[in-house]
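Hi R.,

Quick one: here's the SPOR domain-containing protein sequence you asked about.
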Amino acid sequence: MSDSNGWYYCLTHQTVEQGKGCKGPDRMGPYQDEATAARALEIARERTKAADESDKKWRGDDED
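And here's the predicted structure, written out as tokens:
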């Protein structure tokens, strides 16, 4: 279910949309504003990198 006021990033069309738009599996969000939704892929990359670093520390792979 879409938040009618939320902002989303559509992976299919590579555009930002507000409220109801493309199907849920094709979208990232909701985000609080249009500018944040536009950064959805960058935010995902940052979160993935942080999770990868956390996993390395947890496994002990971060040691030189």
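The mean pLDDT is 89.

Cheers,
M.
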